[in-house]
Amino acid sequence: MSIKIGIVGAAGRMGRALVRQITATPGAEVFGAVERPGSDAIGKDAGLLAGLEPLGISIGDDAVALFAAADVVIDFTSPAATVEHSMLAAQGKTAHIVGTTGLTAEDEAALERAARHTPVVYAANYSLGVNILAALIERTAAILGDDWDIDIVEMHHRHKVDAPSGTALMLGKAAAKGRAVNFDIVKKLSREGLTGARPAGEIGFASLRGGDVVGEHTTIFAAPAERIEFIHKATDRALFARGAVRAALWAARQKPGLYSMTDVLGL
Asked: Which CATH number belongs to the domain containing residue 112 in this structure?
């Protein structure tokens, strides 16, 4: 039987990409699609809105009903909405696939609470390439000493509301894990003015915003006379949708718990 997948934020760019991906994936079906109350998309056919033939599924605004009936719900919305959705997922025992970025430690704690009752997959990036990259960065950081400076430069479209990106933070955390240090202590999210000499072991970040860039991340390991750079460029949101749908099919068969794409991909 097909896995019944619901989408919250279904009229957004990621929501439409998810509709297209689910429709093209064997063993998956678009079960329901929801937008925020008052959205102009409410009542429209989810398939037509995604550029497909009609699916016979109208976009609604009742997230409670969606979480109560779907097998899995994919969520690329906002931190506040995702926290509310996590409670609905726990109540409905519905697997929750979270791709929302900008979550605080308190928001992440809400996901952990929900994961006691249902499978929750939480990832800053659902790209296969980015998750492999994170594993490489962790290994590289473990091999190199803190005389190698680490910086992460990311660029996204002008409409992105959070910085650094969730993916950039994910890569920084991978580097900190490799070095066996506390990320919150060694991170440097921005630099301005007379900063003085760079401390050993610092992991720096720089964020660029402009145009329609889907997502670009460069992790730089720099030492005297040499430099290593890991680069990932995303050119189509379809790659994130593919990963999220893969996570949805995987999570539908798991026990309650908080998982990441590392678990989904078996890395």
From this structure: 3.40.50.720
Asked whether residue 204 falls in the same domain as residue 247, the answer is: no
Q: Of the residues 156, 173, 217, 232, which is catalytic?
A: 156
Which residue among the candidates 44, 117, 160, 188 is catalytic per the annotation?
160
Burial of 225 (0-12, 13-18, 19+ CB in 10 A): exposed
**188 among known catalytic residues:** no
Known catalytic membership, residue 157? no
Contacts of 12 (CB under 8 A, 6+ apart): 76
**Model confidence, pTM:** 0.82
Which tokens go with 134? Answer: 């994170």
Indicate if 113 and 216 belong to the same structural domain.
no
- CA proximity to 134, closest of 174, 168, 99: 174
pLDDT for 101 equals: 85
Taking only the tens place, the pLDDT of each residue in 148-175 is 999 999 999 999 988 999 899 999 999 9
- Do residues 245 and 18 touch, judged by C-beta distance below 8 A? yes
Do 66 and 138 reside in the same domain of the chain? no
Which pair of tokens denotes residue 112?
């952990």
